[in-house]
Structures are given as C-alpha cells and as structure tokens.
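In this supplementary section we document a worked example of the pipeline. Step one takes a protein sequence of length 165 as its only input; no multiple sequence alignment statistics are reported here. Step two produces a three-dimensional model, which step three serialises into structure tokens for compact storage. The input and output of this example are shown verbatim.
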Amino acid sequence: MAEKRVSPRRTTADARGDVVVLLIGMRINRFRAVHQWLPVMLAMFRMLADLKKEPERGLLSRVLLTASPRSYYVVQYWESKEKLYAYASAPDAFHHRAWARINRLERAGKVRGHVGIWHETYVVPEGGYEAVYGDMPAFGLAAAHGEVPLERRGRYAKERFAWRS
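The serialised model returned by step three reads:
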C-alpha cells in the first residue's frame, strides 16, 4: 500500500460552501451472535468498496474508526445531501438491498438485541466548520476537499470560522 505523503507544515481543509458529513456505524450487542453482526460489518465494507468504484455517487472521502471492541463506525464526507439521499434510495445500489434485508430481519424479530445500527447526518454551513492539521497527510475534511496552507484561512480557529469562499 502506498504511504500517504505527510505535509511537514500546518494546513487546513480547502472546503467551500456546505459540508455534508455522515456518521454511520454498528454496535455488537452480543459477541457470540457472529452470524448476526458479521453480515452487517461486511455489508458496510461492500458499500464503501462500491462507492469507491463509483465516485459519481458523491462520496468524497471516509475514515473508518472504532470506539470500543463493540462499536465501529465510518465518518463519510459527501458532495451534497442530494447525492447522499440519491445513493441511499437508489434501487441499483447495494445499500438498497442491504437495508431491505435488515428491515425484513428486523420485522421478523431475528436481529433484535444482537447488533445495533445507527447513523447521524450533518449539513454544516460554511462558517460552521474549521480544521487544522500539523505534520499529517490529508485526513478527514482535508482528504475530502483538499488542503491549503493554514495561513490562507487564518492562523486562529476564529479566523478560519470567519473565512468565506
């Protein structure tokens, strides 16, 4: 795997306009119910792989994280809420099939209590976000929107919050 280039300076994200962030994840409620939670985890990896192959769907970048041995989630950055909605409801996308299956299992009472799933979506208006990265490869918001030298947007957070495109 190619190593990401580390920027030996302070940078900030080159985001302009609204930023769309989706947090989506799962919680393993019963470790022994592998047959219940493993398909959920594998479905998330499949969706991310499909989205990487189809950049026109609007996923700009993602970061895989863990909160504990039970909780896993993905921070996703999208071009727009419209593209996120379109992907979530697209009949040709794997997400549609996976979500339909989960809903069927849930209605039948076959997944209750074994695995938790969740998501939160944020549309953050310009002026409602800022970022700083020191000696880092492009990460998070900067991986999604590019990065610029910190001085271009302001040395202090209050200056970066006040910046407008």
